[in-house]
Design brief:
Blueprint lengths: L1 E5 L3 H12 L3 E5 L2 H10 L1 E4 L5 E3 L3 E3 L10 E4 L6 H8 L8 E4 L6 H5 L10 E12 L2 E14 L6 H14 L2 E4 L3 H22 L3 H6 L1 H20 L8 H11 L7 H7 L10 H11 L4 H10 L9
Parallel strand pairs: 1-2, 1-6, 2-5, 3-9, 6-7, 9-10
Antiparallel strand pairs: 3-4, 8-9
Helix pairs in contact: 6-8, 6-10, 6-12, 8-11, 11-12
């Protein structure tokens, strides 16, 4: 396959690197020191699944060079997504499938401002990986999983090929029929965990061991499930209880990426997480008091120290 990866951070760098290692033509759209490192030294993956260095690497800062890709994996931050869509739109052909892997449930709508909606599929990534230094992606733990699903029937063949390529490349890949459901399944837990940890500046152990914080986490989960069900999403039996079990199964020191960004003084994704819950709940006429409180408390930090 010919695969374009927009962003070469933890998600894009790892999965794109594994696909390139397996022999697929992978082109990274990157910038700054990461672009220079990819072009000069290649891409190194540090992982319990096996270290690898891929060199040479196709990396560019010119979106026009991506024209002709079978699939475009978009892994940039949510606040860059509308600008990213405008940049890559000329490279999206009539048979190209664009798969966003951002947190939250707004990515398709944000991309659709510049890219035809029938070219955009659903995608969810599960991995803990970061840029250890330019050109080096370090994975924490062993979880590396992509779930993708068509939002239009014509996308299925390309997504099937991507799934088969991923499994052959050494990570878990799954093609699902209900793309909307997988987005909300991840969002329910992610939103509650990121919101409560960022609000309290505390890791998983503090949240699950304190009755009041555990109740706040559970209430956030319930608010998002109610919102999703109102929109027509159907969850499997026991899904709500499974979110608390997932919290209990996390390493006690686990912190959300939003908490890490907050304490580092970086921009945070709250507008597309708890903020999106508040906005969508208001539009649906549903209460969301816990997420409303979290959103109000995090709003002053959205732009980071430089904002």
């Amino acid at each position: 396959m010919r695969i374009a990866v927009i962003g070469a951070g933890g998600v894009g760098g790892y999965f794109g690197g594994r696909l390139a290692q397996a022999g697929h033509r992978v082109q990274f759209l990157a910038r700054g020191r990461q672009l220079a490192a990819l072009q000069g030294r290649g891409l190194t993956l540090e992982s319990a699944a096996g270290n690898a260095t891929i060199s040479p690497v196709e990396a560019t800062d010119d979106p026009a060079a991506l024209a002709g890709a079978d699939v475009v994996l978009v892994t940039t931050k949510l606040w860059d997504l509308e600008a990213t869509a405008r940049q890559i739109a000329p490279a999206v052909g009539p048979a190209t499938v664009v798969v966003p892997f951002q947190n939250g449930v707004d990515a398709v709508d944000l991309l659709a401002g510049a890219i035809p909606r029938d070219r955009i599929a659903g995608g969810v990534a599960y991995i803990a990986a970061t840029i250890r230094e330019p050109g080096v992606i370090a994975q924490t733990g062993t979880m590396a999983r992509l779930r993708v699903g068509p939002l239009e029937p014509g996308q299925r063949a390309v997504l099937q090929a991507l799934t088969e390529a991923g499994n052959a490349a050494g990570y878990t890949a799954e093609l699902v029929d209900d793309a909307a459901r997988i987005l909300w399944e991840k969002f329910v837990f992610l939103n509650a965990f990121s919101g409560v940890t960022a609000l309290t500046r505390q890791p998983a152990e503090a949240i699950r061991s304190d009755p009041d914080l555990r109740a706040a986490f559970a209430a956030s989960v319930a608010e998002v499930i109610r919102l999703a069900v109102h929109g027509g999403v159907t969850f499997p039996t026991g899904f709500e209880a499974a979110q608390l079990q997932a919290l209990d199964n996390l390493p006690g020191a686990m912190r959300s990426s939003m908490l890490n960004d907050l304490q580092a003084g970086n921009r945070i994704e709250a507008p597309w997480l708890c903020g999106a819950v508040v906005r969508r709940s208001a539009q649906a006429g549903l209460p969301a008091p816990v997420n409303q409180t979290i959103w109000a408390a995090l709003k002053p930090f959205v732009a980071g120290r430089g904002g």
